[in-house]
Structure formats: C-alpha cells, structure tokens
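Anyone able to model this chain together with iron/sulfur cluster?
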Amino acid sequence: MTETIPQPRAAEETEPGGSPAVAAGLLVLAPLRFEANAVRRGLTQPTSQVQRTGMGVTRSKKRLAAESKPGPFSAMVVMGTAAGLADDLSPGDLVVATEVSDGEITVELPGADLLAAELRRAGLNARAGRIRTVGKLVKAADRATLAADGYLAADMESAALVTAAAAGRPVAVIRAVSDGGFGPGMVSGGMAALRSLRAAAPVAERWAAACRERTVLLAGPRSFCAGVERAIEIVERALELRGAPVYVRKQIVHNTRVVADLEQRGAIFVDELDEVPNGATVVFSAHGVAPAVRTDASERSLSVIDATCPLVSKVHAEARRFAEKGYTVALIGHAGHEEVEGTLGEAPDSTVLVQTAADVAALSVADPSKVAYLMQTTLAIDEAADVSGALREKFPQMRAPGSDDICYATTNRQAAVRAVAADADVVLVAGSKNSSNSVRLVERSEREGTPAHLIDGATDIDLSWLTGASVIGLTAGASAPPAVVSEIITALSGLGTVTVTERVTTTESVQFGLPREVRR
Ligand code: SF4
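re: yes, here you go
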C-alpha cells in the first residue's frame, strides 16, 4: 500500500525565489527590522538568509513582491513577535503555529509539534497552537474573543506570508510573545521576545535541515496485539459496568498514552494491592501476577478482574507443570519485568532466572537431567535463542515448552521491523521506554545496522535524527496505539511530502475472549 501525503500547499502561491528543486537552506521572513536583526544574530549556517517584509498584510505582501528575491531556499520560517492570547503565556514564550488563519484562508502546518518540541529541548518555553493574523493591533476585548476561539497568539502577517512565499516548500511560523503589541515602542516584553527569537534561530535551521521529501516504510504488523486489546477493553468495560473508580494493579499495558487515557476515564493505577480500598474492583494487568498477589486480593475481599494475557497464563501453567514434576525451570527473561516476576512467583523454589549465556555458565542445579526452560513472551528471538542454546549445551536432556513462549505478536513485529530496517536510513519505534517488546524492536533494527529510536509520540523526535534521512522505517510496539503512528506520519508530513509505503510481512487474526466479569 502506498499513499502520498503532500506538504500542505497554500491557497495562492507565487514563486519568490529560486526553484523548489534547488537544495538550499533556510529562508526566514521577519516583518520588522528589529525582529529580522534578532534572528540574523542567532543564525549559524551560511546558507540561511533573512528577508524583512514589513508590518501588516498589505505592506509585507507589497514588499515581498517589490524587493529583490531571496536566494534559493529549501524551507521557510516566518519569525516575529506576536500578541499572546492565552493567560499562561509570558513575554518571551514562543508559539509555533499548528495553523495560521486570517479568518478567510486557513493553512495547517502539521510539523508544528516537532518544531515546538525541538525548541523546548533547546531550553525555550515553546508550545504549538493556532495563530490568527489580524488587520490591526489587538485590543483587550479582541484578545478575549480570539482566545475563546482557540487561538494562542495573534500577529499581523503570518497568514499572508505563508500563502504568498513558501511556494510548496515546508513552512513554519514561530512567534515570540511580546506584551501584546507589535511595534517597537509598545512592547514592554519586547526584549524578552527578541532574545527568544534569536535563540530560536539555530533551532529553525535544524528544522530546515530535517526538511525534505521522504518515504515512510511502515512495518506490518505493528501496534496493538490481541492481548493488549483485550486488556484495554477489560478496563473500559469494567468502568462502564461498575463505574469509576476501577483500580488497576500496575500499568494495564506498558504505554503512557494508554494509561493516561484510561486514567482520564476513571481508572486508578496502583503499584501494589495495599493501595486499593477493601472490597473495590481491581484489574490485574496484561503482564500477569504471582499467585501470592491473587491470595492477597482474596484475603482483602477485592473484586478481581484478570486481564493477564492468555499467552502469559500459558507460560505460568507450564512453570507449574514442570515444577510439579520435579524440574528446575530456567526462565529466560529480564529481571524486574512484571511478567517475569509473575512467572517466577508460580514456582519460586523451582525457578531460576537466566538472562545471558554467562548466567547459564554459572547455573548449578540439583539434578541436571531434570531441567526445563521457559521464556518471557516479549524477548528478542535471536537473543533468547543464544541463551536457550547455552542451556541445551549444558543440559542436553533439557525439556522445552510445549509451544513457543515468545508470542506471535513479538515474533511478527520483529520480523516486520527487520524488513523495513533493511531499506531505511533510520527507524522510529512508537512505544514507551518500559515496553519490553518495543525496546526489542529498536534493538532488532540496530542489529540490522539501522539506527532506531523509541518514541512515545511525535514530539519525542529529535530533528537531528531526520537530517539526511530520505527513508524512515516506522513501527509500533504491541502496546502502542495505532493513533500514535498516524500522528507521527502527520508530523513528518510537515517537513516535506511524505510517501507512505506499507511493507506487510504477515497478517494477524488472533483474538482472545473476555473474562466473564465483563461480558455483557
Ligand atoms: S505481546 Fe504477546 S504476550 Fe504480551 S500481551 Fe501481546 S499477545 Fe500477549
């Protein structure tokens, strides 16, 4: 599947300078002399240029048309001061436009979140939001109206400049909040705004360097697995059927977006059961719990709904089965992971955790002829194979689990990321830092020789990762929502036309039933 998401084009476009095909640097359009000078002082690249446009729509358009054309440029940023409309904006704060509108024409700028995040990483107070271009200085009453309409800042030129000058190239708008006025004589916060514009200039250059037409190679399958979908649905249904609050022991799945969303809807996440009031409803997470936790819940008269993934429950059952038969269970996994703690708890006296081949070398068991191994479900296949190989060498009679412990979703996502990493300059993996299967996708890509980065969302993208990258591999861990992938593609489209090609290595049809407590 291939889809092209073009850089949003202005309604009316004229060609102010060289051909868009010419690779060049950043063009900054700054309305006033003091704004242009502040930006000039901050620029670092010889290819960057600043053009002063004059104040207001009419003057800036006229000046753009009349003055000498800028040299070739590859990306354009409108930079200047603005009136802050939100109460919590202070002089010097930066607003990066998600859209600019003059009331008639609205231009959306989907890369705003990336640029605002890069400004924040540079130590500046920056946020992304809507900017309104107005015809005259904003009075107090107008401010309230514009703020109520959802605008963060107001200026007098941006809508005209992005529609007149970008000519299809990537474009951004950065406005520094003064005290609300636009002229040099009326801005008590003007100095703070100019300092911010100067500090923002090298960040605008980094943004321009990251701009280019590119391909996004989308790994398939990616994002939610059947176990994660089931766990989320269990919490949603518990909230619906029993009302808020519903307590959830540990993160239901390892993803900050999912957790934040459920929290907003009334779920309360706790680390341990002693934080749950007696008699309340508690959901056990997809990663499973040790039997001691179930006993504790029962003694506390908690109403338990178990969202443990059936594939994790399968590993638990295997641990019990081997232990009952007198085997020592070597559990291949990562220390401290909730799933590993749950599995270890099934047969604590018979189970040992082995993380590496070195752990295997140091392992001593009572009866070497009665050893079995199990695995955490979200391991890297090749690394787990190294450890199981070392175990097999040391304990040739070792028993294996009845079927693979590394689950289908982990296996499929690793194969899929491998397929895109082979042809990508860089790989982005949507997922949270504590998501084991997401971290493994990063490692999988790196083992293919392609740098990879784990991101919770588009704002985690460091623009330097994208500089020079024409092909970006994109995937998402099993606990990362599909919407995050869409958000990342949209943000990338703000840096130039994006062609999305999906590379599907396999399709999935696994589904798990819900526990009876939440069946309707
Ligand atoms: S990653 Fe695998 S084991 Fe974990 S919840 Fe998803 S399907 Fe279940």
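DSSP finds 17 helices and 21 strands in the chain.
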